[in-house]
Design a protein that fits this description.
Elements (H helix, E strand, L loop, with lengths): L1 H11 L22 H8 L6 H8 L2 E9 L5 H14 L2 H4 L5 E5 L5 E7 L9 E12 L8 E9 L8 H17 L13 H7 E8 L2
Antiparallel strand pairs: 1-5, 1-6, 2-3, 3-4, 4-5
Length: 207
């Protein structure tokens, strides 16, 4: 009975009914509520906490690729995946220890910055998640595939912005100019075949 009274009192504290929310995570639709109320209310939603953190991580880069009319989207995605897996991330930052592994779903790679493990800190120092996303928002423009790079701040105590900048710029310059030591661009395997299958439609990056 006391729990029922407490819940009734809590719900009564909302002066207005929260608007119907079309977002996956209800927090985005509650600008008038306190942080505590947002956290409690959103705990009843369907969003997983790890998914929410991934959504909130900053987008560092988004490359939109237009697939040629006679090309298969599935084949193009595989070419992009091979390109990402073979991209020489470690050559861009020879002093920064890192690892990069393909995602379990085969739609991107996870680049992890490494450090010496201690009792207080793990060996992971954040990183960048490169994800392949199918873009069907505008069917008139044909098939498009996006490469999205998001910051992974898990385990970070100090920002790795310089490392992020070097990797993103090398990746973008590689798509624009090919491998060129003068501007620090790098390419993965199948660069020429990839550009025969799709063209770069737009590029956004933080730097």
């Amino acid at each position: 009975l006391s729990l029922f009274v407490h819940c009734q009192s809590f719900l009564h504290s909302f002066q207005t009914t929260p608007p119907t929310c079309s977002f996956k995570y209800p927090k985005q639709c509650m600008p008038g509520l306190s942080n505590q109320q947002k956290n409690i209310f959103s705990s009843f939603g369907n969003g997983d906490a790890s998914d929410l953190k991934a959504e909130e991580e900053e987008v560092l880069m988004r490359v939109s690729l237009s697939v040629c009319n006679t090309c298969s989207v599935d084949d193009t995605v595989q070419l992009i995946q091979n390109y990402l897996q073979s991209f020489p991330f470690s050559a861009v930052l020879p002093v920064q220890p890192l690892s990069y592994l393909p995602k379990e779903d085969g739609m991107g790679v996870s680049v992890s910055f490494l450090r010496k493990k201690t009792q207080e800190k793990s060996s992971y120092d954040g990183g960048i998640d490169f994800t392949i996303q199918l873009d069907d928002t505008d069917e008139d423009k044909g098939s498009r595939v996006d490469i999205v790079a998001r910051r992974n701040s898990q385990g970070q105590y100090i920002s790795k912005m310089f490392s992020e900048k070097m990797i993103v710029k090398a990746f973008v310059n590689g798509l624009n100019y090919g491998e060129n030591n003068q501007n620090g661009s790098r390419v993965g395997l199948g660069y020429d075949e990839l550009l025969e299958t799709c063209s770069v439609e737009s590029i956004f990056h933080k730097w």
